[in-house]
Each structure stands twice: as structure tokens, then as C-alpha cells.
């Protein structure tokens, strides 16, 4: 196979998975490839061997970790090296659809808006994911509006969340003694392991996270009935109402994604289009102005 030989889409998907796991988890083994694609160990090893022939600088075998690690000159060849490729893969659970778009199966005459590629270090993601899986504490330097230079904190992460165009991690913060959201692109340096969690600080004890909240939306009542009916169809509403359920801390992100500002109503109802029908019941999740 030379550089101009087309690669079958299923083979390309396997190479992409290899790169994503190596770059963002720091290790890839044949078992992961076999389990993801339903192939035997020998075939998975053959896929890894062929990938190394195509990108010889990208992987090196580590005897102590019993797997392939990214080499110091690692350069993605079949992926873009973007964190959303890995995080969408985590979110996809048993499917490979999200990070494996573009395998020649898309519809023609389509276009998508370019979105900013948030600067997130692979080392940060590796440590956060590892700590979340193993119930470990992390010592991090985190920048915020109150401290743009960054300050040291001890976090116990439990869930990665994509919301409002950014990747966050939900974590227990020992400084504030509660659970908060932290933007991954605001981590400075590489987080360091700070030992096992000290108490009940995992996802099961994040009561707000465990609470499911109904968000009810209706067409803006200032609009004529015909236009409200049109919006009801646009949003697949039932009896003129759309009811969405999400975790409590994600309510404000859900509203933002829908273009609904709970603190401001557009003067033009056509610009507003939809409004919140159950504002009072959401008061504990959003600080109303």
C-alpha cells in the first residue's frame, strides 16, 4: 500500500481509534481494538502492526505498562488531534459514530459552522479521566475570572460534560467543599495525583447532579397563534409544549444551547421565539435576575 492507496473505511476507523486512545489516554492495547470492532486478538494485533508501519514514530511498546504508548514525536495521521474526538468517543459509549464521522458515508451538499478548537492538553485529559475512573484526588492549577493567573486546588472529578461549546469536568472542590463545574481549557500545567478521595465525594454523593429536572418550553406567547403553531412543529412540541429533562447543574447550559436567556427577554418575540413555562420550579437551579 502506498501513500495514494485509499484506505477502507473500517480500517480507517480502527486507525482513528488507535490514535485517539494513544493520544488522550496515553496507552492503547490490542484488546481495546478487538472489543470495539468485534474482531479477534490476532486481527487486532495485525491492525496495530499495520498502523505502526504507516506511522512508525507514533507508538512505542512499553513492557511495564503492557501496551503501546505515544512516542515523543507523535503526530496524528488519521485524526485531527482534537480533544472533542476523544470526549465524544467517551460519550458515545458502545458506538463509534461521533468521532468517526467523515468515513465516506456523509450526505452531499452539507455544511457545518466552524467552531473554535479549545486549547486542552492531552496530559490534562489523561489525568482527569484516570482520576474520575479510579476515584482519585487531583492537585490542579485552575484559572478563573476571579484569579486569571490560576490558583491551586484539590479536585475529585467524576464526569466530563460538553455544554455551551466547551468541555467541563464536574468535580468535588475541597476548597469550596462542594461540587462545581471546571472548564478543561482553564487548567494550567499537568494535574498531579493527590491520593484517594477522603470521603463521600464521588458521583453518587453529588446530590444536585443526581437530580433530574424538567425544563418546559413553549412558543413566545406574544406571537400570533399561526406563528406559535409553526414553532411547535419546529421543536416537535406536544400540545404546544416541549418538556426536556436534564441534570440539575446542566439546566442553565441547556437553556443557553436553546438560545433562551432566563435573565432577559428579547423585545422582538420573533427573535425570542420560545420561552420558559416553568420558571418558578427552575429557580433553585438558576439565579433569576
Automatic annotation (TrEMBL):
Domain WYL: 124-190
Pfam family for this entry, one: WYL
Residues annotated as domain DNA-binding transcriptional repressor CapW C-terminal dimerisation: 213-282
Domain DNA-binding transcriptional repressor CapW winged helix-turn-helix: 10-91
Highest taxon, organism lineage: Bacteria
Protein name: WYL domain-containing protein
Amino acid at each position: 500500500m502506498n501513500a495514494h492507496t485509499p484506505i477502507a473505511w473500517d480500517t480507517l476507523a480502527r486507525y482513528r481509534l488507535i490514535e485517539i486512545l494513544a493520544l488522550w489516554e496515553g496507552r492503547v492495547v490490542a484488546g481495546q481494538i478487538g472489543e470495539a470492532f468485534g474482531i479477534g486478538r490476532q486481527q487486532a494485533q495485525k491492525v496495530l502492526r499495520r498502523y505502526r508501519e504507516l506511522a512508525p514514530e507514533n507508538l512505542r511498546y512499553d513492557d511495564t505498562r503492557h501496551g503501546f504508548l505515544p512516542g515523543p514525536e507523535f503526530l496524528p495521521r488519521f485524526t485531527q488531534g482534537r480533544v472533542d474526538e476523544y470526549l465524544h468517543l467517551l460519550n458515545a459509549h458502545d458506538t463509534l459514530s461521533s468521532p468517526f464521522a467523515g468515513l465516506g458515508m456523509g450526505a452531499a451538499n452539507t455544511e457545518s459552522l466552524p467552531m473554535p478548537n479549545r486549547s486542552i492538553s492531552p496530559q490534562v485529559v489523561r489525568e482527569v479521566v484516570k482520576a474520575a475512573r479510579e476515584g482519585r484526588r487531583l492537585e490542579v492549577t485552575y484559572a478563573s475570572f476571579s484569579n486569571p493567573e490560576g490558583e491551586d486546588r484539590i479536585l475529585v472529578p467524576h464526569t466530563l460534560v460538553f455544554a455551551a461549546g466547551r468541555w467541563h469536568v464536574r468535580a468535588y472542590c475541597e476548597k469550596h467543599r462542594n461540587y462545581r463545574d471546571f472548564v478543561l481549557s482553564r487548567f494550567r500545567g499537568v494535574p498531579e495525583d493527590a491520593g484517594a478521595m477522603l470521603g463521600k465525594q464521588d458521583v453518587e454523593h453529588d446530590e444536585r447532579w443526581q437530580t433530574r429536572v424538567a425544563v418546559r418550553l413553549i412558543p413566545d406567547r406574544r406571537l400570533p397563534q399561526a406563528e406559535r403553531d409553526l414553532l411547535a412543529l419546529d421543536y416537535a412540541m406536544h400540545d404546544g409544549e416541549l418538556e426536556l429533562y436534564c441534570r440539575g447543574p446542566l439546566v442553565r447550559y441547556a437553556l443557553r444551547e436553546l438560545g433562551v436567556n432566563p435573565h432577559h427577554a428579547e423585545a422582538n418575540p420573533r427573535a425570542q421565539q420560545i420561552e420558559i413555562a416553568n420558571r418558578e420550579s427552575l429557580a433553585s437551579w438558576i439565579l433569576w435576575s
